[in-house]
Specification:
Helix 2 packs across helix 5. The protein is α+β, with helices and mostly antiparallel strands and about 220 residues long. Helices cover about 35% and strands about 15% of the residues. It has one domain: 3-Layer(aba) Sandwich (NADH Oxidase), CATH 3.40.109.10. Bound molecules: flavin mononucleotide. The site of flavin mononucleotide has 11 residues, from strand 4.
Length: about 220
């Protein structure tokens, strides 16, 4: 296990002006971000990943606590443990599916754990003193929300370089923490497979596979 170093990026003093072209490109970045499970095996330059991690650390966090913790999963032993974990969790998830959907579920590719050249497990440090508890008293889960913010920025930063990220949650969280021997108090949030995608698409893979398309769910603005 190796814990990646944190390098802070300071902005230049002058505030940027984001123009229409930037906004169009930003929208394209959002529209062309994908959850990727089919990776080419060629390596991703380490500096590119480091830079994306630097940018991810600009994420907002409750009380400025920055509770995200990244673990680079590199050894074959650690990767094997994750793959075995995924197989167990996925078999359990398959059994929970309605019978009418089980065959389709079994055909879905739900992780790139074999191919992805870079794999990062993300944890939330539930014990960090950074932030002095601000914002967490009534909602301690905001620490984990903060970790997810960093993941989202990492996702976009990588995509802006043409690198894909796939979020794997079909895992037994306690087993991940145990297998990666992380400190007590780190709670598992996500396992991220990272690499060059086999193909680019603006349509989510689950939609193309006939599992679930986007709908208007969540777009409604409830007014009170
Ligand atoms: C919290 C979270 C957990 C996810 N877990 C998995 C997973 O275990 N396996 C998988 O194939 N996709 C997983 N995804 C990816 C979603 O399936 C994907 O985001 C969704 O289908 C929409 O596709 P898109 O990200 O390409 O727009 C996860 C996404 C999120 C946000």
């Amino acid at each position: 296990m190796s814990v990646l170093a944190f390098r802070e990026i300071r902005a230049k003093d002058e505030a940027p002006v984001f123009d229409a072209r930037f906004r169009a490109e930003f929208e394209a970045l959002l529209r062309w971000r994908r959850d990727v499970r089919r990776f080419r095996r060629d390596p991703v330059p380490a500096e590119l990943v480091e830079r994306a991690l630097d940018l991810a650390c600009l994420a907002p966090s409750v009380g400025n606590s920055q509770p995200w913790r990244f673990v680079s999963v590199e050894s074959e032993a650690a990767r094997d443990a994750l793959r075995a974990n995924f197989r167990r969790a996925n078999a359990a998830a398959l059994a929970l599916q309605d019978e009418s959907r089980r065959a389709l579920y079994a055909r879905l590719k739900l992780a790139g754990l074999e191919e992805a050249p870079v794999q990062l497990a993300v944890f939330c440090d539930e014990t960090t003193a950074q932030g002095h508890g601000l914002g967490q008293a009534s909602m301690p889960e905001t620490r984990r929300y903060s970790a997810v913010q960093a993941i989202q920025l990492l996702w976009l930063a990588l995509r802006s370089e043409g690198v894909g990220l796939g979020w794997v949650s079909i895992l037994e969280p306690e087993a991940v923490a145990r297998d990666l021997a992380v400190p007590e108090g780190w709670r598992f949030v996500a396992h991220l497979c990272i690499g060059w995608p086999e193909a680019e698409t603006a349509v989510p893979e689950l939609e193309r596979a006939g599992w679930q398309a986007r709908t208007g769910a969540g777009r409604e603005l409830v007014r009170r």
